[in-house]
């Protein structure tokens, strides 16, 4: 039984800033598909010019190879795509992709998509990165102070700060597990190609990000829907923990979320120093997008990728 369009994974390589989806060519490659799979998500300029070895082989490609590669240029493939070129809202049309949806979202588009006809609704889908810490960090600070003051009613200041610190760190670690779980089992849940509503739900949750990974105004979570989610967790945790514990734990988890959003934004738009930890994380996340989207789910930490055996790849 053949692989359906919804199951076929792109095989993306980059040359001079352009992405090429060579999945259909891999089996025909004279050097074998293994070589191309090894280079998935990578800039191939030095390899194709013969400047670098791959799997022990150095080979300078002919002009014909460059011409053949152009057939798989993602930008060329996307020309004429009505969902990409639409000047009106495309959100409620995405469900019509059916079995093509999964492959479509993993062929990245270096631009932005218009989701709604209404300019007002469209503006509400965009959030500048600095809005997130501006809204949530004051709340983190407030609940941290409340926690220390509440603990101090039954302990001295030193021990109150220690208790706050311990529960704050537990909150941060809890966020990292939440982040991993959401990314792996919710955001990478695969919708039924027969259900336009499932496709729409997935596209809103995460598909849009994989389709337009460099759209800077849609990288962080807007505060209004975030506030509703925070409110739900407020009700759960405030009825689970004692008040000072809740304030410390909640502040830590909220701080973990803010750091996640900031790190995620930086991994897409920052320029970390080579060989630094952030450079490793940038390449690690880049490979999740462009090499293998079934591994490397951790954004702020790889801890849970180690635990659940979904470790991705850093720099070659």
From TrEMBL:
Cofactor binding, note field: Binds 2 Zn(2+) ions per subunit that likely form a catalytic dimetal center.
The keyword Lipid metabolism is assigned to this record: yes
Enzyme Commission number, as recorded: 1.-.-.-
Binding site for Zn(2+): 183, 188, 206, 209-210, 264, 268, 285, 288-289
Domain of life: Eukaryota
InterPro entries on file: Cyt_B5-like_heme/steroid-bd (IPR001199), Cyt_B5-like_heme/steroid_sf (IPR036400), Fatty_acid_hydroxylase (IPR006694), Scs7 (IPR014430)
A Pfam family annotated for this UniProt entry: FA_hydroxylase
Membrane-spanning residues: 128-149, 161-182, 219-237, 243-267
A GO CC annotation given for this chain: endoplasmic reticulum membrane
GO molecular function, one term: fatty acid 2-hydroxylase activity
Boundaries of every Cytochrome b5 heme-binding domain copy: 1-78
Required co-factors: Fe cation; Zn(2+)
Catalytic EC class: oxidoreductase
Sorted UniProt keywords: Endoplasmic reticulum, Fatty acid biosynthesis, Fatty acid metabolism, Heme, Iron, Lipid biosynthesis, Lipid metabolism, Membrane, Metal-binding, Oxidoreductase, Transmembrane, Transmembrane helix, Zinc
Ligand binding (heme): 29, 61
Compartments, record wording: Endoplasmic reticulum membrane
Coiled-coil annotated residue ranges, if any: none
Record family assignment: Belongs to the sterol desaturase family. SCS7 subfamily.
Protein name: Fatty acid 2-hydroxylase
Species annotation: Caenorhabditis remanei
Upper lineage: Eukaryota, Metazoa, Ecdysozoa, Nematoda, Chromadorea
